Amino acid sequence: MGRALATAVLALAFGLAAALFDAEPLWVPAATLALIAAGSAAWVGFGARGVRVTRALGARRVMEDEPLTIVLEVHAGRLGLPPSRLADPLMPAPVALRAGSGGGRIGRVRIEVRFGRRGRRVLALPRVLVADPLGLATRQVSARPSPQGDEILVLPRIEPVVAAPGGGDATRIAKRGMPAVGAEVELDGIRPLRDGTPAARIFWPAVARGADAQERFLASSSATRPVVVLDPRGAASDEALDASVRATASLARGLAQAGGCSVLLPGDKRPVDLGETLSGWAHMHARLAMIGASSGPALASLAQRRGPIVFVSARMRAYVPQALGPAHGATRIVVVPGTLAERRPMFAVAGCNGYTLSRPRGSGGSPRSAAAAQGSPA
């Protein structure tokens, strides 16, 4: 109401001047300005009563760069609505609304937006700007907050894993690097003998020594499936961090659909399994959307893993941490947001490149060469 108030003050000034100097002609502009100020304020005030703005979101979760449809509707009050404008931060400029009769819908705007970066987005409330034709009196009517909240969770997008010339993709590498667990020699350890254990599983050396009977047990399938590990620390830029998160999401989903995998994120004490049905993927995807660069993964939980490990790092590095050194001949892959000098990547995904650091057992690689690949930025 700033301009209307200024007009009213000007009308008062004309009236005072007319009274003090007995200048009757000044009463005309004083009365005119007073009527204009009062009329504008009353028109806008009554017109804004009962105005409602509603917003409908097409989805509460959307991937990066995917379109999200938002529908805004404006309903007039019982006294109608003067010519107004609908404003929303997602629109480049306010949209003019036609004057409407009381109680009806006078405007409907459909917005299609895209978010380029992952994370939580809190949407500002849309508002109707009610004003008289002269712009003397204005009032804003904002939408009421939605009971479901006014937030959008932008998920990291899933991108294809592209094999480099002469390389391979992460799915083939993971399958090729998995040790065979069907053989009886692939043991996870020795434990006390249980009733009903087959004779082939009894640990006979213990029986021969006269010790308590023990049995051998096989490594579980979860110990041999591929593991995708994300370390978001030390990123050179926000773009590098986002690229590593997208690579993690893409690799995890691709490996899960190819037969299952596990994912270790910062804050977890042990990897989370993902099967071919993608059960739990929605929760995992949402967690990836909120990953920051403050903490790293708990690598100690991977000490007994026999399967391949795909280590996704937000910073450039040519080796995996010492805790992930090649064990049982399993493959170790490092994925970085860029390219390593004098190294040929095996695959590329989401702006990152994957490099294998050791070869699975039986592929001809020596332990010495595998250790060199792990410990030196070759």
Quick synopsis:
Helices cover 24% and strands 25% of the residues. It has 378 residues and is an alpha+beta fold. The strands form five sheets. An eight-stranded mixed β-sheet has the order 11-19-20-18-17-14-15-16, with helices on one face.
Note the main attributes of this structure.
378 residues; alpha+beta; Immunoglobulin-like; 4 domains; 8-stranded mixed sheet
Name the beta content range: 25-35%
By DSSP (H or I, 4+ residues per run), the number of helices equals 7
Strand order of the largest sheet: 11-19-20-18-17-14-15-16
Number of strands: 20
Structural class: alpha+beta
What coarse outline follows from CA principal-axis ratios? elongated
Largest sheet, in brief, is: 8 strands, mixed
| Uncertain stretches of 5 or more adjacent residues | 173-187, 359-378
How are helices and strands ordered from N to C? HHEEEEEEEEEEEHEHEEHEEHEEEEH
* Oligomeric state of the chains present here: single chain
Q: What's the pLDDT, averaged over the residues?
A: 79
Overall tally of structural domains: 4
Helix content range: 10-25%
Our measurement of the CA-to-CA distance between the termini, rounded to an integer number of angstroms, reads 70 Å
Computed CA radius of gyration, to the nearest angstrom: 34 Å
